[in-house]
Amino acid sequence: MAQLDAARAAHPEFAGQTAVVVSWYKNAVAPFTTTDVRGRLVTGIGLKGQPEIDKIAGGSFYTVLSPERIDLIDVDRISVIADRADQSALKNVELFANLPAVKNGKVSYLLDSEGPAIGAAISQGTLLSLPYAIDELVKSVGQG
After folding, report:
1. Which end of the chain, C or N, has fewer beta carbons within 10 A?
2. List of domains in the chain
3. Measured between alpha carbons, how far is residue 40 from residues 13, 67, 88 in Å?
């Protein structure tokens, strides 16, 4: 897709950095795999995914991490797709708050169903939502 190619070309600083997209699901961190649309967009803009999550997910598009496995999202950049209440809950998880990406301001918080629903646009991955999703993902990652 030309828009992903353009994003990679415009942001060479993304190359070599690891990233993961997560949600807050049933009081746990739920990262998406690199084969899910969310993970594919992250790698599409030039970041590297976290293949260990794919292994643990066992063919599913996401997995739920127990607190002792939060190390799997110890990456350079994290994108959180969640609404305000879930974002607040996640920010209060000490193991999450102590991740280097969190401490270094390399986390993008993207609203899901509350406006602007950037997270929903990324998650839906439709012809109509993808151009907006790519632009907003690049902006949010580039700000961190």
Report:
1. N
2. 2-114+122-143 (3.40.50.1980)
3. 18, 25, 26
What pTM was estimated for this model as a whole? Answer: 0.92
SS3 content of the chain, % helix, strand, coil (to 5): 50, 15, 35
* Confidence band of 142 (pLDDT split at 50, 70, 90): confident
DSSP state string for 20-81: EEEEEETTEEEEBPTTSHHHHHHHHTT-B--HHHHHHHTTSSB--B-GGGGGGG-SSEEEEE
29 DSSP β-pair partners: 24, 65
Q: How confident is the model at residue 1 (pLDDT cuts 50, 70, 90)?
A: confident
pLDDT tens digits, 74-91: 999 999 999 999 999 999
Q: What is the CA radius of gyration of the chain?
A: 14
